[in-house]
Amino acid sequence: MTCPTGRICSSTACVSATCVAGETLCAGSPLFNAYRTCQGGLFTSQVTFCPSAGDAGVGLQWCVDTRDANNLRHAVCGLECVPGARRCEAVAEDAGLVSKLRICDATGKWGAATFCPYGDCTGNEPIAGCQADCLPGQVRCAGSTVSHPDMHLNVSTGAQSCTAAGLWDTAVTACTAGQYCRRNSSGVAYGCLECVGSSNEVGRLDVRCSSGTEVEECGSNNLWVTPPVSCNGTCTPANGGQPAYCPTMPGGACFACATSTCGTYRTACLADPACMTALESCLATYNCWNAASMWSCLHNFCWNTPDMTTPNYHNCLTSWFPPTGCYAGGCN
Fold it and tell me: Which residues face 36 on adjacent strands?
């Protein structure tokens, strides 16, 4: 096969020449200590390795590409490293072995080992680098894992902070008495808190039995709201992060009030806001547990659920158990 001028034959095709006789080119990753030779206008697929430096004390000789006065390429062996390459190096310090970063300079020599400006040195030569473990100011739970005495789920007794260098502080700060390191449902740590007043490990507000007959919810400031509210009965403890609740209304008074004030389940509350106002007053009169939250729950279902026979409406009136019932933070 004859190729036109400026093209050369490669296997069964005519291709453009990529080099001229006498040129050599470093093989590149991952063979940083080898080069290719130009033959017939193309660089060979076979490589030639740079010799070992042996007694020179620099290990393998690395290859670097250069150009001569005629702009022809020449691979040069004899460097300690490829300019720009990076590697981690264990260095003995007073505190023991620490990992430092070394960068290969433009002459093919390793620079001095230095601490990373952030994070730790990680990765393999020639693409090692500094990697942060965390964002400065971030916290994570640490210490011992225990069961929360009120919410009955696993929590931690301490926390760690992320330093300005992007590394976790080696010291674990113990939570003060009555506090535990808590997380949200995605596992993101809040740090040491008395309680979670937003979304805890199972996505709920903390509500606990402060006694056998009283409930207490966590406020938005992550502190227990005092004084606790009487269940007028037995309080069912929190379990696995789900909030504590009062199983029934006191003597059924609230349920009786709701049905008598608004009539049957099918009463069109949507068309009778005055009914809901009367119900709110009735609930407060009977001193129902957290009447404001009860009102919010009932109002939500009345204005959004025309058919009052739905289980949600019934549970809202008769039970605090989530997710269809209400608890101190409102109704879900």
Answer: 25
